[in-house]
Write a structure and sequence with these properties.
The complex is a heterodimer of chains A (about 190) and B (about 240). Chain A is an alpha+beta fold. Chain A contains three helices and eight strands. In chain A, a hairpin with a 5-residue loop joins strand 3 and strand 4. About 15% of the residues of chain A have low confidence. Helices cover about 45% and strands about 15% of the residues of chain B. The N terminus of chain B is likely disordered. In chain B, strands 2-1-3-5-4 form a five-stranded mixed β-sheet. In chain B, helix 1 packs antiparallel against helix 2. Chain B is an alpha/beta fold. The chains are: A alpha+beta (about 190), B alpha/beta (about 240). The interface between A and B is large, with 62 and 70 residues.
């Protein structure tokens, strides 16, 4: 009987302690919770993306802050990256593009678990739309990412993601070749 | 799980009550062997009492309001406002596309939950609404949460102090009114500590992480019972 009570106690205590522990913030290190458009299938993602490329992040061009009103406490940060295009899967971008991404390093108000900032030197697979912002002086066109499903890292021959939201990992873990063939097939079907 | 735990505690408590009752009613003089046996029984009862009290305490600690909520609702950590009387300030231009949806969202939460919002003087609000062309953010609206741990912060396990809702007009100007309303209701849900639901397994509700899509797909731009229960369970 004592053993039963002790066992029950330890089980219940463990369970309740697990629940009592501060719930991990599901937003990772993010200070903001955002509402994102989503493209849960490859077809939807390809359809929403006029431009799809595999590219290498060659340079962080810097960040800027935007406020909607003087009293707004937390400006919105954007960071621009210059990329060298390795392969075009859809559209007609140049060999070099600029991609605008929300957020900036080290700023809790501008960190998103759904869309971590690109890392210089990394290879990425991007689903893009042309930004309304003017091109750089050298003619390099700027693009935005269509949704959190629109950014993947390529590591070796695999497509990966650093996003912490499992729901958006539609391509993560797939072989690069297989995924790119699926994307091209979806693009050609339209 | 909670039901099982409650049953176990109830059963243990009942057994304890019966033991205690026996202890009170036994008046028969005991011979030394019985005393010895009873001494062992007293120890067992004492251990059982300690175990039951420990269980009850651990459950109280573990299953506070937030703990209970984990079974069904999703929260941004364990922190929240320490009051149901909240203030807000709508800094979006009156008559513009974002003013009415923000007011609508405030009214919806005020009228349907235990939380009540009133207008604050500028700078004294707990919830602030802003709009702006924030550029290619990918997201179309967001909420920032300040707690005693930081401002803003991802550590949302302590008391809330200030929250800010921001609409990106670049992404939302082409939305229908009810998409903007759904978004505003959703963002105010964040300011009340509600977390995103990333699947619809528990039914359609406004805290799914793409509220404009929820409206386009399900026609919902108001609170469902799930949203109401989530807030009332916490406050």
């Amino acid at each position: 009987m004592n053993r039963m009570v002790a066992t029950a106690f330890s089980v219940i205590l463990s369970a309740s302690c697990a629940v009592a522990a501060p719930a991990p913030s599901d937003e990772g290190d993010a200070g903001a919770v955002a509402s994102w458009p989503h493209h849960p299938t490859i077809d939807a993602l390809v359809s929403a993306s006029p431009v799809i490329v595999r590219a290498v992040v060659v340079e962080n061009l810097g960040e800027r802050l935007i406020t909607g009103a003087p009293t707004q406490r937390f400006p919105v940060a954007l960071t621009e990256f210059k990329l060298r295009v390795e392969r075009v899967l859809k559209g007609s971008p140049g060999s070099q593009i600029v991609v605008i991404e929300p957020g900036r390093a080290g700023d809790p108000a501008n960190t998103y678990k759904e869309l971590p900032l690109m890392r210089q030197g990394s290879r990425v697979l991007l689903f893009l739309y042309p930004s309304a912002e003017p091109a750089l002086a050298d003619g390099t066109v700027k693009y935005g990412i269509v949704s959190p499903e629109g950014l993947y890292e390529v590591v070796g021959a695999r497509v990966t993601t650093r996003s912490e939201q499992p729901a958006i990992r539609i391509a993560a873990g797939q072989g690069l070749d297989l995924f790119e063939r699926a994307v091209v097939a979806a693009a050609q079907a339209r | 799980m909670l039901g099982m735990l409650a049953k176990q505690v109830f059963a243990s408590t009942r057994r304890l009550r019966e033991d205690t009752s026996n202890e009170v009613t036994i008046t028969v003089p005991m011979t030394p062997p019985y005393r010895a046996a009873d001494a062992g029984g007293t120890h067992r009862r004492l251990r059982r009492q300690i175990a039951v009290i420990a269980i009850a305490v651990s459950m109280l600690i573990g299953f506070g309001p937030a703990g209970l909520a984990l079974a069904h609702y999703f929260y941004l950590g364990n922190g929240y406002w320490q009051t149901t009387e909240l203030t807000y300030r709508n800094y979006t231009p009156s008559g513009d596309w974002y003013y009415e949806p923000s007011e609508y969202a405030i009214a919806v939460w005020s009228n349907n939950t235990d939380v009540n919002f009133t207008v604050a003087s500028p700078g004294y609000e707990k919830v602030a609404f802003y709009q702006g062309n924030f550029g290619d953010t990918v997201w179309y609206a967001r909420a920032l949460i300040c707690t005693l741990a930081g401002c803003p912060t991802a550590d949302r396990n302590s008391q809330y102090t200030y929250t800010e809702v921001q609409y990106n007009t670049l992404k939302m100007d082409n939305m229908q009114t009810n998409e903007r309303r759904a978004t505003a209701v959703h963002e105010v849900g964040h300011t009340l500590s509600l977390q995103h639901a990333t699947d619809l397994g528990q039914g359609v509700h406004i805290m799914y992480d793409d509220p404009a899509w929820i409206y386009r797909t399900y026609g919902i731009y108001y609170l469902t019972q799930h949203d109401i229960d989530a807030v009332n369970n916490r406050y």
